[in-house]
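Hey, can you fold this one?
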Amino acid sequence: MARIKPQTLLQQSKKKKGPSRISVATTVIYGLIVAGMVLFIFATCRYWSRRSEVHMEDALSAVEHDNAFGKTKKVDIPRYAVISTSKGSITVEIYKEGSPEVVEEFVDSCSKGRFKGMFFNRVIKNFVIQGGDDDSAGTTEDWTLRGKHYGQLDTSLKHEAFMLGTSKTKHDGGRFDLLITTAPIPDLNEKVNVFGRVIKGEDVVQEIEEVDTDDHYRPKTPIAIIEVTLKQKV
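Sure. Predicted structure:
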């Protein structure tokens, strides 16, 4: 039997203990898996980042819209109104905070020209002048009857003269009556939504108050409202 040399045995032992080679196909597969994981992580981060940006844009847009709406609303509500009548002009300051819903209805009526051609259908000396489309006695005559019944007005609950308001009765069909007091009126807030005050043209109010009326306080000579103009400054 042939004898194997020690050097040959040593070389054979090194060959058996050497690391096994990884095939090219396995390397490619591992590379694809790693690349896929990297792309997945990148896409996920980009998605959430983009989603946060969209939410932020929506929030900013909503805030800007609210601010713009608030500014528009403030601009739409004027500070003054000029009531042009056949006797002259009456300038009133509008109280925006007191009765905001009534003020909005008044502004809407002005914008739609509902006061053009309206007449003062009730004139009660030392009480009120009333302009409107409704020919019924309504608020003004009710006050007068109560005043006659009690003999005199309860001045402890008085309100100042030259206040602008509208009756608290429901305004059907877009109707909106205007009341201007010519003297302090008792329990005014029970009957009227006050939303303004005359600041110019008190003499015109007094001139209208002095016209002749019939037994139902209707002016014998028609007094018309030509138009009502809204203004921010006077």
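The helical segments are 6-17, 24-76, 100-111, 138-150, 188-191, 202-209. Let me know if you want another pass with a different chain boundary.
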